[in-house]
């Protein structure tokens, strides 16, 4: 069935804003500005950037509130009060989102530190590791039994991650100012952060989905809790001394927010880059939720793979890194593994078989597991 103009617009919006999200963050990392010591240095403030990401997530709650109010007003004016669904804003305690917000804060901050040390394309590809840890944690804490195709998908993803990591190791000097140790450290931090992200998803599935909270509302609450908590944590980070490569500010502390504001003042392009993160996060979450609703979670996953390809292409175009062929293999393995895990590849084969009046392969229903993420309020960024 052909997509409508609205569905196509949502797909384009998701790919564009999702790509801007990573690229604008990496752009800010590469911009130089005079710091508080009077030296021109790259903008290395991952925790301050994570705060801007949570601002973008918080805007999702504003979008949800406006949409909910408009829908309620329209129903009231149409005298359809009997059809009004219970108000989701008052049907749950927002504090249920505090634990996943803390996990999101830890994962995002860790990933932004890693992004500062490695390539934007590797950052996006390595995030595919979340499938592995989500599958394992779901088995351990949700009692879920993984199917053979899911294990096969996870194995394929591991192979893809290995190729991407190996290519960073072999071609570490390709268009990057970071040392080999920094690049490998960044890659490891990104993969480790996926353990936390997987924990967040499992928590949400176990404790949050039973409340049937709209996804935009869930993202908004997690954004608010994450922003408030991380903003407060910037205070002790200002006094916590660390060494390179985790800090390059004059005081050599984990995060010097005042130094970050000084660099933003001296180079307005940094403000523009961080604004891109805020706006793209809000629109990306809205587009992602809408794509899942209008099309399917399968389409959402495919589009997420497309934005990885866009980020990689733009990074090459801007000469943030050089082209090296092993990443093609790694990307292909990652996409294949995610397709197998989410039953996309098997479902496509089933659809072809049905067109030939044949039975589905393995007897798997086309829709089985494809929409596992349907309605799940996981934060995406």
From TrEMBL:
<feature type="transmembrane region" description="Helical">
    <location>
        <begin position="125"/>
        <end position="145"/>
    </location>
</feature>
<keyword id="KW-1133">Transmembrane helix</keyword>
<feature type="transmembrane region" description="Helical">
    <location>
        <begin position="46"/>
        <end position="70"/>
    </location>
</feature>
<feature type="transmembrane region" description="Helical">
    <location>
        <begin position="215"/>
        <end position="239"/>
    </location>
</feature>
<keyword id="KW-0732">Signal</keyword>
<dbReference type="InterPro" id="IPR037185">
    <property type="entry name" value="EmrE-like"/>
</dbReference>
<dbReference type="InterPro" id="IPR012404">
    <property type="entry name" value="UCP036436"/>
</dbReference>
<dbReference type="InterPro" id="IPR009262">
    <property type="entry name" value="SLC35_F1/F2/F6"/>
</dbReference>
<feature type="transmembrane region" description="Helical">
    <location>
        <begin position="269"/>
        <end position="289"/>
    </location>
</feature>
<keyword id="KW-0812">Transmembrane</keyword>
<dbReference type="Pfam" id="PF06027">
    <property type="entry name" value="SLC35F"/>
</dbReference>
<keyword id="KW-0813">Transport</keyword>
<keyword id="KW-0472">Membrane</keyword>
<feature type="transmembrane region" description="Helical">
    <location>
        <begin position="91"/>
        <end position="113"/>
    </location>
</feature>
<feature type="signal peptide">
    <location>
        <begin position="1"/>
        <end position="18"/>
    </location>
</feature>
<comment type="similarity">
    <text>Belongs to the SLC35F solute transporter family.</text>
</comment>
<protein>
    <recommendedName>
        <fullName>Solute carrier family 35 member F6</fullName>
    </recommendedName>
</protein>
<feature type="transmembrane region" description="Helical">
    <location>
        <begin position="152"/>
        <end position="171"/>
    </location>
</feature>
<feature type="transmembrane region" description="Helical">
    <location>
        <begin position="324"/>
        <end position="344"/>
    </location>
</feature>
